[in-house]
Amino acid sequence: xxxxxxxxETPTLVGKSVCLVPLxxxxxxxxxxxxxxxxxxxxxxxxxxxxxxxxxxxCESRAGRSxxxxxxxxxxxDGRYLxxxxxxxxxxxxxxxxxxxxxxxxxxxxxxLGKEATQLVLEYAFDRIGLHRVWLYVYAFNMRAIAVYRSCxxxxxxxxxxxxxxxxxxxxxxxxxxxxxxxxxx
Length: 186
Ligand SMILES: CC(C)(COP(=O)(O)OP(=O)(O)OC[C@H]1O[C@@H](n2cnc3c(N)ncnc32)[C@H](O)[C@@H]1OP(=O)(O)O)[C@@H](O)C(=O)NCCC(=O)NCCS
Known about the structure:
It contains six helices and eight strands; from the N terminus they run αββαααβββαβαββ. The protein is an alpha+beta fold. The protein has a single domain, classed as Gcn5-related N-acetyltransferase (GNAT) (Aminopeptidase), CATH 3.40.630.30. The two termini are 25 Å apart. Coenzyme A binds next to helix 3, strand 5, helix 5 and helix 6. The site of coenzyme A has 22 residues, from helix 3, strand 5, helix 5 and helix 6. It comes from Nocardiopsis terrae.
């Protein structure tokens, strides 16, 4: 069984270029603004965006959730908000969970931040929570994301054909997963 205390006590995880802290009300403005970024929305396949009030409610309600992890990605130096990630759909019986990550703007991508954040969270997911399997969905056109997930030990397990209809074109999604022991420690 997994250690549910490791989900209740939301951690702060500190790396070289990112610091992961519990997502909370203080991140509302940045979280809302990130949802408006057109290119990030395309990569996530998000057709709409949250209203400010929905973003506020989401950030405020995270502390009360002991069944998932929602972390803000901050710059260690100045605390600048860089994005957020979640470990969700946790199945304690199966020791599995889903993972998602989004940096808040394209200017933050390609600098190794996503890889470092993913490595930090996988280490926590496997070593502290005690998960066996972490899975995710990614659109097949998102080569940067796929490269990061592969380099962290994820393997493609399946293809969900024509999952996304974006500006008149259909795109496949990939199911990827990493098992405990199969991930790259930082
Ligand atoms: C996906 C995401 C988290 C990746 O984080 P990142 O900080 O941008 O990625 P990194 O800089 O850590 O690593 C990028 C890697 O992709 C590679 N890469 C970049 N563009 C690529 C491309 N077109 N094809 C193949 N590889 C590519 C880089 O070479 C690098 O690999 P390396 O470390 O082996 O050199 C981030 O880009 C993001 O949040 N994007 C916006 C939202 C999104 O796409 N979320 C994921 C939804 S599933």
